[in-house]
Write a structure and sequence with these properties.
This protein is of the alpha+beta class. Helix content is 24%, strand content 28%. The longest helix is centred in the first third of the chain and has 23 residues.
């Protein structure tokens, strides 16, 4: 009996001694022992959350501590423990850590002066409390919440202004008979970039894969003036769309880079006067073998000056330091040079009316080479310049050497305020999408 008591006393002395040593000599802490002990104390609520050694788990216990934080995120004993684990993983930084913040081409570095403290964390909200706009029979699966319950884009309280209301949708956006989950951050009111109140959406799309639910796309629907956008609802369309591919690169005329596309110089109305004399020359524009003939009504619209050009964006944007992109008629139209472009005719939106894509000659700008692609469609009964796109190009490549084709889009379109949107195709890796003239 005495030997058992002596053995127990030795264990207690060693444990206490190790605990004191580890507390004052951090290098003496053994992760294999200390990490499970810290986690156990947190889960049993023996250690208050604001007294737990989160810095040790995040920064000073190697992979064991990071794995423990991920396990607490999923299997923590309480919601508050799971929330704290996410905040620690994303926000707890050591002294001297350098963060890059900003956006676009404007970045600056911020140096962490001291290690993060618990009272400085911003705790994420619970995703299960978000509004869910689902069809009858739809339900967000529990497998989605296991990974994303505290990690959705709108769950972290902002440091400054509110981001808006978050709504969850489910829709089959990839035509695979499996619904994706769409997180819609809807903002109504004042935006920093716009002069008038606007309605806008930022979407994050999640898809179920073998390893769980993964984020497959994030993009923004260009804001619309609040007085004309109504309730700001988005529509998940069943309308198929075809995508133009040039030399293996997708050309997305329905993208959503609003900050570039909307900060543009619309083509002046005088361009219609210049382009009138191009009407009888449209039949001289080269076409690939798969293309239909150019529609006669397009020539009529050019001759009659009834073709609709892009106009200034509503709501108007504040001035920015960006170079404005080009919007308007294909340059070969205004220069009356049918040999300077190539035309492709196909019903890309499957509405029974042919659409026209015009490719101009390549342009060398700075260190990149691209060619202007212009999409013209019939909208509300009139031929309209829908979009211009700077497509990837190889310098000196002739039109007849281009590999061009239309293929069904991977995505089903999303409609907002009368405009269609598609996320970029996976292989659309051009460095520049917008022509700067």
């Amino acid at each position: 009996m005495k030997w058992m008591l002596r053995g127990l006393a030795v264990i207690v002395v060693l444990s206490v001694g190790y605990g004191v040593l580890a507390n004052y000599v951090p290098r003496a802490r053994i992760a294999a022992i200390c990490v499970p002990a810290e986690v156990l104390g947190i889960n049993l609520r023996l250690i208050p959350l604001n007294r737990a050694d989160w810095g040790y788990l995040k920064l000073r216990s190697g992979k064991a501590g990071l794995d423990a934080l991920q396990d607490l995120e999923i299997h923590g004993a309480t919601d508050k423990i799971r929330q704290a684990s996410v905040a620690v993983q994303d926000q707890w930084l050591e002294a001297g850590h350098v963060s890059r913040i900003g956006g676009g081409h404007l970045f600056w570095e911020v140096i962490q002066k001291k290690e993060t403290q618990f009272n400085e964390l911003r705790m994420p909200l619970d995703g299960k409390t978000l509004l869910q706009d689902l069809l009858p029979g739809q339900q967000i699966p529990e497998s989605f919440w296991q990974k994303w319950r505290y990690r959705l884009p709108c769950l972290l309280p902002p440091k400054t202004s509110a981001t808006g209301e978050c709504v969850l949708h489910m829709a089959d956006l990839t035509s695979d008979s499996q619904a994706e989950i769409i997180v819609d951050v809807q903002t109504i009111g004042k935006w920093e970039e716009y002069i008038k109140p606007a309605v806008g959406h930022k979407l994050a799309i999640f898809q179920s894969k073998g390893s769980g639910w993964e984020s497959i796309a994030r993009f923004r629907l260009c804001p619309n003036e609040q007085v004309t956008a109504g309730d700001g609802q988005i529509i998940f369309s069943d309308q198929p769309l075809d995508t133009l591919w040039i030399n293996g690169h997708a050309v997305n005329f329905f993208d959503s880079d609003c900050m570039v596309r909307e900060n543009t110089i619309p083509s002046p109305a005088g361009n219609l006067d210049q382009a009138r004399t191009m009407a009888p020359l449209l039949t001289h524009i080269a076409r690939p073998p798969f293309s239909k003939p150019l529609p006669a009504p397009l020539a009529t619209a050019l001759a009659d000056r009834t073709l609709v050009l892009p106009w200034a964006t509503e709501p108007p944007m504040r001035e920015t330091g960006m170079k404005p992109a080009y919007q308007g008629l294909p340059p070969c139209f205004t220069s009356h040079n049918p040999k300077a472009c190539m035309a492709m005719v196909a019903d890309i939106d499957h509405d029974g009316s042919d659409d026209v894509v015009i490719l101009d000659r390549e342009v060398r700008k700075d260190v990149s080479t691209w060619r202007l692609a212009t999409l013209l469609m019939v909208q509300q009964g009139r031929w309209t310049v829908v979009a211009n796109h700077a497509a990837c190009a190889e310098e000196g490549q002739k039109f007849e050497d281009l590999k061009v084709e239309f293929k069904p889009s991977t995505w089903r379109p999303i409609e907002f305020a009368g405009r269609l949107y598609l996320p970029d195709e996976a292989s659309d890796n051009c460095n520049q999408h917008y022509p700067i003239l």
